Every structure is written in C-alpha cells, then in structure tokens.
Hints:
By secondary structure, this protein is an alpha+beta fold. The protein has helices spanning 49-64, 66-72, 87-90, 174-177, 183-189; strands at 11-13, 17-29, 36-45, 85-86, 102-109, 114-116, 134-146, 149-163. Strands 1, 2, 3, 4, 5, 6, 7 and 8 form an 8-stranded mixed β-sheet that branches. The longest helix has 16 residues, at 49-64.
Amino acid sequence: MATTQKVNPAKIVTGLVRLSYINAFAPRKDEETGRESYSVCILIPKSDTASVAKIQAAIDHVKNSPESQSTWGTKWLASYKNPLRDGDTERDTEASPEYKGHWFINCNSSQKPGVVDANVQPILDQSELYSGCYGKVSVLFYPYKQKGGIGIAAGLNNIQKIKDGERLGGRSNPEEDFSVEAEETADFMG
C-alpha cells in the first residue's frame, strides 16, 4: 500500500542552480555565536522563472502563516529579511560576475545535508562538490526572530550535484596546471 506524503508548501526543490560557498561535509563554526552549521549559496538564473515562482510561493506561504505571525508578533513588514536576493543589485558583479543575472539564496542548517550525484548516489569524495558546479537543492523556508533581526530563513535540506562547471574563486584543478612530465625530467630531478 502506497503512503501519501504530506506536502509542505514552505519546502521546494530548485531547478538547476549554480552552487557557491559550499560547506556540506563538515560544519563550520560561527565565531560570534559558537554555533556550527552547514551551508550553500545557490545562484538561480533569472531566466528560470519556474524555480523563482516556486521559491516566491513558498516565501509567500511563510509570510502569511500563523506560525510566522506568532513568531513576529505582527504581519510581514517590508523591513523584514527576505531570503531571495537580487545578485545584480546586492553584489558587486564586477568582482563576482557569477551573481550577474541571478537571484541568490544563502541556505543553512545545523544538520548535515544529504549530498548525492545525478543518479541519487551519495557523494563521498568531497572534491566532487565545489563552488561553480551545478545541481538542485532542497530548501525549507521558515520564520525567525532573533537578536540579529526578523525575517524568513532558508533551511538547507539536501544537495544533488547534476554537472560540473567552471570553478568559482580562481582555484584550478591539478590537471589544468600540470602536464605529464617526460621520464628524463624526472631523472634530472632525482
């Protein structure tokens, strides 16, 4: 007998996005709070209107939910933090050209996300997931109110790497930097 899974309108799975600032295998400690968390920044092409619509619908659901109103003590105010941000206006696209023409969301979790490949097999080699590769991300939006402010946060659930991409941040692969050396060069060094 098949079971029906309850649909959570605050949870979405993106379309194909570019991954950046990936911290998915070991938690990173926040120096101010001492809390450890996993994180990823997802870059959503503005041309992916289907993903943006799903994200906006989930955010709107959270904005209007009774849980949010009890968290904030009021209805959504324009001054509250929205997790969907505009890369063209909120980032220096000359210094970080990957943000040009993209929306971005910073996703965090205190729990380790599942990380799988295109065949939904676990990725064990951490070097397979890097800033610049492409994938899909499962995100749960939720309200927050804490010392730093009020708004909607993006909780990181799981990451699926779909394909490779140009690395961000200027780091290269060894295969890009080196070629196979001839035997006589090795003998000269020995």
